[in-house]
Amino acid sequence: MAETALKANNIVKYFHDPVTQAVLKNISLEVNKGEFVSIVGKSGCGKSTLLYVLSTMDTDYEGEMDINGAKVTGLSLNNLARIRNESIGFVFQFHYLLPDFSCLKNVMIPGLRLGKYSAKEVEERAYEKLKMFGVEDQALKSANKLSGGQQQRVAIARSLINDPTIIMGDEPTGNLDSKNTAIVFDLFQKLSKEMGQTIITVTHDEDFARRSDRIIEMRDGEIVK
Fold first, then answer.
1. What is the per-residue pLDDT for 73?
2. Which residues of 134-165 are buried (b: 16+ CB within 10 A; e: fewer)?
3. CATH code, domain with 160
4. Could you tell me which of 149, 53, 160 has the C-alpha nearest to residue 110?
5. Is residue 53 part of a domain?
6. What is the pLDDT of residues 132-183, one digit of tens each?
7. Residue 111 located in a structural domain
8. Residue 21 domain-assigned?
9. What's the number of domains the chain is made of?
10. pLDDT one-digit tens code per residue, 7-23
């Protein structure tokens, strides 16, 4: 029987400006460990809002959520920050690398913040992650010297430095051409199939979504398929 990585029950979220309206309406979903899931839907349907709730970065919601079998709803901000650093890796449409830092230093930052390993061990682990994605030769270059595709691979390497159980992507291929989109998809698929990591992405890319394990389609704040 598959283990559950993330479970959400009856998630409701409101926006209050300019008027109060529900942007997520009784969302319930379950994602298994090692599953590669794509959340799709038209702009404004609530998919990115849902991802930020699932990631614990947005705590202003009704309902309950579990990560790796433990309830996270209602925890303090400090506890949620620790859970995010330990259990969730993030990949965004824009890579958010520090431009003047080397690629190696960028990848190391979440590992140094977690404090689980010595600085030397974090550096070694960062090299391993860069090598996994074929950009180890760029390790000492400033992030702003890399191509867009290389920067996104470094960002994925950074998301893995703490060996999270879940990787969340918000339009992770939105700024990439078709060649680099295919590379990023293959990397996610490898992480899911070979390393057992759970992937949850929001995407507008129909081909990307179609090749993932499961599609969750949203419309007007609800899951419709």
1. 93
2. ebbebbeebbeebeebbbbbbbbbbbbbbebb
3. 3.40.50.300
4. 160
5. yes
6. 878 888 888 898 888 888 888 888 888 888 888 899 988 887 777 888 788 8
7. yes
8. no
9. 1
10. 999 999 998 878 888 88
Can you tell me the mean pLDDT for 107-129? 88
Cα–Cα distance measured from residue 63 to residue 9, given in angstroms and rounded to the nearest whole number: 6
Q: If we measure between CA atoms, which residue out of 173, 195, 199 comes closest to residue 184? A: 173
Residue 83 to residue 78: CA distance in whole angstroms: 9
Phi-psi region of 178 (alpha: psi -120 to 50; beta: other; left: phi over 0): alpha
User: What is the chain's length?
Assistant: 225
**Structural domain that includes position 152:** 34-61+73-223
